[in-house]
């Protein structure tokens, strides 16, 4: 269920340990944050 294409320079990798929300279940945490209106990730909007 990929809604948009990611930037090719962002490979699938483990989430940083200092981000507990995204640490457990990267995709789920990402969508949760996006739903809250926060922009997370090293490459936002890419």
Could you walk me through the main structural features you see in this protein, from its secondary elements to its overall organization?
- The structure is a single chain.
- The protein is mainly alpha-helical.
- It has helices at 20-23, 26-36.
- The protein is built from two helices and no strands.
- Helix content is 33%, strand content 0%.
What's this model, at a glance?
The chain has 46 residues and is mainly α. It has helices at 20-23, 26-36. The protein is built from two helices and no strands.
Total E-strand runs: 0
Return the structural class. Answer: mainly alpha
Terminal CA distance: 18 Å
Q: Name the poorly predicted regions.
A: none
Give the SSE map.
Elements lengths: L19 H4 L2 H11 L10
Relevant terms:
46 residues, mainly alpha, globular
